[in-house]
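Entry type: protein chain
Record version: 2
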Amino acid sequence: MTRPPAFDPAVGLCSLCRHARVVRSARGASFWLCERAADDPSLRKYPALPRTECHAFHPHGKPAPL
């Protein structure tokens, strides 16, 4: 069983969102990618952090809305 992600105040809601994932560059930098941005033009692919509000936020461990 995998542990749920921990809240990171420097990242905000993205650290707990099922639609976010960390992308690492070849130089070692980390960026948070919003996978919902591919379907929702109101979202940024790489949002400014920390995110304190997001209409697409959906926590890990809960079924995604249809």
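Comment: Residues 14 and 21 are 8 Å apart (CA to CA).
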